[in-house]
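Lab manual, section 2.4: Encoding a predicted structure.

Procedure: take the sequence of the chain (434 residues), apply the prediction step described in section 2.3, and record the output as structure tokens. A sample record is shown.
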Amino acid sequence: MGRRIFRLDADHVFVAAVVAVVCWQTAPLVSEAVASMLPGATPTVDAPIEPAAPEVASAAPVPRPDEDVDVVPSGSTRLVVDPAAPTTPTIGSHGCRTELTSEALDVQLRTGAGMVSGGDYAHAYPLADGRIVWLFQDVFAGTGETLDPNRFAHNGGLVQDGSCVSPLPGASASRSWIGGELEDPMLRWFWPLDGAVGADGHLYVFVAEMYNLNGTGAAEGALPVATWLAVFDGATLELRSFDEAPDPSSHLFGYSIADDDQYSYLFGNCYRQFAPPDVGVHLGLDACSASTTVARVPLGQFTSAPEYLTMQGWSTDGANPVAVLSGGSSHAASVRRLGTTWVAVSKQDEWFGDELVVEVADRVEGPWRVADRVTVAARCTECVTYGAVLMPWVDDGRLVVVLSSNRWSLSGVTANASAYRPFVVTIPSWVTGA
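Recorded output:
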């Protein structure tokens, strides 16, 4: 096993092993599948999530606190990534992996982490004590190769402690961990975005409030209407509060979060993947999706009123934020600060594209420049990839990106759950420092 480095955004080095959790949002047809099986109804089974089975327990890189991250852009090197043949991990006792690599994490996500038969948009939130919370959007609990509508929730996840995983406190297989009591599944629900530990040691997770008046969930007509903020106790993960964020707008500031020594930066994207025909756009092609904006709060003060980057500089007026990153029909960037370099990864054009775009900058305000374009192979002929999430660590000089996968075919999704599971892409070509 090679050396492993975790560097968190505020240039803090965090020594911990990574877990596998779950954060759920669907691509094209998963929620339509659920809606067709349970038309407009809340799932009837409220079964607790079972612990992970030994053969699929999670894994994570081990950091080296004495190493630094040196980002050296190398132009526009094209690297074709084939996610078809992951490395088989070594399994330890008590359901824990002994191989802590990105390859093992890839296997864990592809096999459902022992608790998840399908889900997407996997986010990892390192805690101050070394554990990591993982959250997914639109998740199906279970270990089988079909999606069970009675074990569906709009969000859920796992807790990683070292190389072992366990259920989130109070988690249910059929109710969202965040905002479940407020949801009307497929009509009104909550999708977790990015999150971070605040200055008070608690975990802050920004959340998109979603509506689809058609009652079909993540399908045409689904739109984000507000940004919420969930606060969890940093030790027990007990929910402390869940309310609208200081900026509750549908700009969704908190889609991605990165820190420097003074500020926490809240990157925003309108996230309008399923705009209805009456707004004059097509599925996944709302013009606002092509831009990433940014706001900031004092470091770790996520309940503070933000300032926004505008054409006039930083301002408390958020009416007209300026795009710091843009391109294609969709450019929802996942941003980290690695060493002194800002790094952004986006899945260009989401479902309709095949490239990851890596951009870097010396300052959050830019200018940003393209450092790499990575062609990503879909997992099947009907599959699409989307939802790039840049993990808050690097692995042997490689960026670690978790991508979501889905199929256009409704029957293909429900009968082949493995097509609706995230996978790992590593990008070594420009972070080696060579």
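Check your result against the sample. The chain has one domain: 22-427.
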